[in-house]
Amino acid sequence: MTKENPLQIVDVSEVNDKVANELLDAATSQGFLMVEGHGFSKKEIADLFQTSSEFFAQEQALKDQVPYNPATNHGYSWEENLDPSRGKKADPKEALNFANLNCDKGTSTEALPPFFIANPERRELVENTIAKLYQLSIKLLKLLAIGLEIEDTNECKGEDWFVSRYDAEKSLGTTFRFLHYPSQGLLDPDELIRAGAHTDYGSMTLLFQKANEEGLEILSPVLKKWEPVPYVESRSKNNEEAPPIIVNIADQLSYWSGGLLKSTVHRVKFPLQSQANNQDRYSIVFFSHPNHDALLEPVPSAKIRSIEGRGPQSNAGKVLTAKEHLDKRLAATYKY
Ligand SMILES: O=C(O)CCC(=O)C(=O)O
Ligand SMILES: [Fe+2]
Fold first, then answer.
1. Whole-Å CA distances, 290 to 99, 158, 264, 274
2. Which pLDDT band, with edges at 50, 70 and 90, does 319 fall under?
3. pLDDT value at position 87?
4. For residue 259, which of 47, 196, 220, 317 sits 20 to 30 Å off, Cα-Cα?
5. Which residue among 32, 98, 203, 205 is best mutated to probe the pocket of ligand 1, counting the most ligand atoms within 8 A of its Cβ?
């Protein structure tokens, strides 16, 4: 690894105060970090990327069999515009979303493309991945609650505050997504953005990327400039674990923490190298959302109270629910 990595790498195989504080430190500074000790093997992730590239390699009519539905945020799309301020043009990418999930089982109540229905192995791979990523996000939410020293209430223990807003059997905004940014060859600089600048809408996002397919950049809250997020190899001792997973704190954790946790702006660019090599980018993303009815109010914590008044909702008046926030953001993103 020669490329500089601006993100902390935190080993989350154990839940304790030290890990909680490391996580909190990264979440309150860059708002992006990497986690290892996540429990995904190299083979699982290689199989997922293989499945993703096979799906997107199909002819268009097959991909369009389950088209994106804005009412459910589920299905195949190629028309997303993550930064509407740049104009009406969609980002040069395609995506397959799995939404309306039962996160314990990893299943979706929506129709899946025949590509998955006809092949139980592919389907199980996706379902197992969703269930594991969900459990990982729950673990990270618990660690953040410990780091924030959230107080016990009548309703729940402090460390369960975020997790108590998640009910895997209830309707959630949680979405699993395969992304493909086709190579565009040499383009004028205006066309170099593959995904416009945005923050994510859920509580946190987990992301896998591949070697030599970089392009993700964060607008660093620390350095106040765009910083590339490099591909980082696994450091696991037995060499079996997949590379670190990128964790992105998103809007709802920022609301819950009065802005202490950073929902960092990010985008995807074509690095010059990948243009020269005609390189596509594939990424796999899990957007973790609480229950639709969860109120995005600041959590009971002395660490939050000390900064209250400076949070993103401080002047907004009404506290939004998770669903109200999600609908607002999705409406601005898709041009339907
Ligand atoms: O592909 C990536 O690395 C980023 C995707 C992303 O930011 C998103 O879909 O919200
Ligand atoms: Fe994003």
1. 13, 16, 19, 36
2. confident
3. 62
4. 196
5. 205
